[in-house]
Design a protein that fits this description.
The chain has 428 residues and is of the alpha+beta class. It has 12 helices and 7 strands. It has 2 domains: 223 residues, no CATH class; 140 residues, Histidine kinase-like ATPase, C-terminal domain (Heat Shock Protein 90). The strands form 2 sheets. Strands 1-2-3-7-6 form a 5-stranded mixed beta sheet, covered by helices on one side. Strands 4-5 form a two-stranded antiparallel ribbon. Strand 2 and strand 3 form a beta hairpin. Helix 5 packs antiparallel against helix 6, helix 5 runs antiparallel to helix 8 and helix 6 packs parallel to helix 8.
Length: 428
C-alpha cells in the first residue's frame, strides 16, 4: 500500500497533466494504432518521472526544468497519437498545463481547508485531493476544452509562433515562481496572496487562448467571405457579358425564323420559339445588375423546373454598390434554389422574392419551402453540409452586406417555410 501511495504521490503531476490534456485534444483525429501509441506515451512519461526522482539535486530550478521537460514530452506525445502538428499540440498543451496548475492550487486549498492542516498527510487527505482534482479538472476542461475544440477544429492555424511562445512562457514563469514560493517560507498571508494571483494568471491564460482562437476564426471567416465576394463580383461581370451575348443571338435567330418560318413545320417552329423565349425573357426591375442576376437565376430555375416569382422595385436599391446587390440577392437565391431543389412536389418548388418600400424602409423578402430540419445559430440558418468550414458563408456575407448599409436582417422558419427578411434604411 505504501509503495502504491508513494508511486502516485511521486508521479501525480504526470497523471494530472495527461488527464487535463485529454479534454483539449480528444476531438482530434487518431493516428493508426492509437491505443498502443497512448500506452507508449504514458509509460514513457512515467519512466522519465521516476528517473527524475533519482536526481541528487532538487531546487526551484530543477523543479521548473521538470515542468518544462514534461510539457515538451506531452506535446510530442500528442503529435505522436493525434493528427496535429507540433505548434497545434503546444497550443493545446499550454491550456492543459494551465488547467492542471489551476486545479492543483484549487485542490490544495480545498484539502487545507478540509483538514485544517497544511502539512499532515493521511489517507483522508489523499481521497479528498484525488476527488477534488478530478472534479476541478473535469469542470475546467469541459468549459475551456469544449470552447477551444469547437473553435480551433474549424481553423487552419491555431496560433502564431510569437503568441504561442508568449503563452508557454507565461505558464513556465508561473510555475517558476510557484517553485520559489514552495521552497522558501514566506509566511501564510504572502503565500495565500500568491496562490490567488497564480490561479488568476492561469484563468487569464485560458481565457486569452479562447480569445485568440475566436479572433483567428473570425479572421479566417472574413478572409473567405471577402474571397467569395470577389468571386461573385467577377461572376457578375461574366454574367452580364454572357446575357448580352445571348440576347444578341436570340434577336438574330428570331430574324432568321421570321425569314424561314414558312419552311419550318409548325410544331418545330413553336418549340423553337418557346426555347428562345426562355432566354429572351427580360427582367425590368429598374436595377441593371439585379436584372442580370434575375435573368441568370431564372434560367437556372427553369432548368431545374423551379418557379421564380418576383415582384421587385429595383430602383429602391440604386444607392447600393453593384457588387453588393449581386452578392446579396445571389446568395439568397442560391440558398433558396438549393433548398427547393430537394423537394419533389412541383407545387412547392417555388421561390418568392419581394422588394418594396414600407414605412420609410426598404423591405427585401425571400421565401421558399424546404425539407428536413433547420438549425439556427446567432439568428442565421446553419449549413447542412458536412464540410462546414467552406460552406455556410452565404448567409454571413448577406448579413455583412446588410450591416454595411445599417440594415436589419431576420431569418425564420415555420411549417417548413423559410423566410428571409431584410430592412434597409432609405438614404436621405
Amino acid at each position: 500500500m505504501n509503495m502504491i501511495h508513494s508511486f502516485f504521490s511521486a508521479n501525480g503531476y504526470v497523471f494530472e497533466l495527461l488527464f487535463a490534456t485529454a479534454f483539449y485534444i480528444w476531438g482530434q483525429k487518431h493516428r493508426k494504432n492509437f491505443v498502443m501509441r497512448v500506452f507508449t506515451v504514458v509509460i514513457g512519461m512515467l519512466m522519465v518521472s521516476m528517473l527524475w526522482q533519482l536526481l541528487p539535486i532538487k531546487n526551484p530550478l530543477t523543479d521548473s526544468m521538470r515542468t518544462a521537460v514534461f510539457f515538451v514530452l506531452c506535446t510530442l506525445g500528442v503529435t505522436f497519437c493525434f493528427h496535429v502538428n507540433f505548434m497545434e499540440s503546444a497550443f493545446y498543451n499550454t491550456a492543459a498545463a494551465a488547467t492542471q496548475h489551476l486545479c492543483f492550487k484549487a485542490t490544495s486549498s480545498v484539502v487545507m481547508l478540509f483538514t485544517r492542516n497544511g502539512i499532515e498527510i493521511s489517507v483522508l487527505n489523499d481521497i479528498v485531493y484525488v476527488a477534488a482534482i478530478v472534479v476541478f479538472e473535469a469542470v475546467c476542461g469541459l468549459f475551456f476544452g469544449n470552447k477551444l475544440r469547437k473553435e480551433s477544429l474549424k481553423t487552419t492555424h491555431t496560433s502564431s509562433p510569437t503568441v504561442l511562445l508568449l503563452l508557454i512562457g507565461m505558464q513556465l514563469c508561473t510555475n517558476w515562481f510557484q517553485n520559489l514560493f514552495d521552497k522558501y517560507d514566506v509566511g501564510y498571508k504572502p503565500y495565500t496572496v500568491f496562490v490567488m494571483f497564480d490561479m488568476i494568471c492561469c484563468l487569464f491564460l485560458l481565457m486569452l487562448q479562447c480569445e485568440i482562437v475566436r479572433n483567428q476564426k473570425e479572421q479566417e471567416s472574413n478572409a473567405i467571405m471577402q474571397h467569395l465576394l470577389y468571386q461573385q463580383k467577377q461572376q457578375m461581370k461574366l454574367s452580364q457579358e454572357t446575357i448580352d451575348l445571348i440576347n444578341v443571338k436570340c434577336h438574330d435567330i428570331k430574324n432568321q425564323i421570321a425569314t424561314l418560318g414558312n419552311n419550318i413545320p409548325e410544331d418545330e417552329l413553336a418549340d423553337l420559339k418557346r426555347a428562345i423565349d426562355i432566354y429572351d425573357t427580360a427582367f425590368k426591375s429598374g436595377n441593371e445588375v439585379l436584372d442580370v442576376l434575375l435573368m441568370e437565376k431564372f434560367m437556372q430555375c427553369e432548368n431545374k423546373k423551379i418557379r421564380l416569382d418576383c415582384m421587385i422595385d429595383g430602383e429602391l436599391l440604386s444607392f447600393m454598390k453593384k457588387s453588393d446587390v449581386y452578392a446579396l440577392f445571389g446568395n439568397a437565391i442560391d440558398n433558396a434554389i438549393e433548398a427547393v431543389d430537394k423537394i419533389n412536389d412541383e407545387e412547392k418548388r417555388c421561390i418568392n422574392i419581394r422588394v418594396k418600400k414600407s414605412r420609410g424602409m426598404i423591405l427585401i423578402h425571400v421565401e421558399n419551402q424546404y425539407l428536413g430540419e433547420l438549425s439556427f445559430e446567432e439568428g442565421l440558418p446553419q449549413t447542412t453540409k458536412k464540410d462546414k468550414r467552406y460552406h455556410g458563408f452565404g448567409m454571413k456575407s448577406i448579413r455583412m452586406i446588410v450591416e454595411k448599409y445599417h440594415g436589419f436582417l431576420s431569418a425564420g422558419s415555420k411549417d417548413n417555410i423559410f423566410s428571409l427578411d431584410i430592412l434597409l434604411p432609405v438614404p436621405k
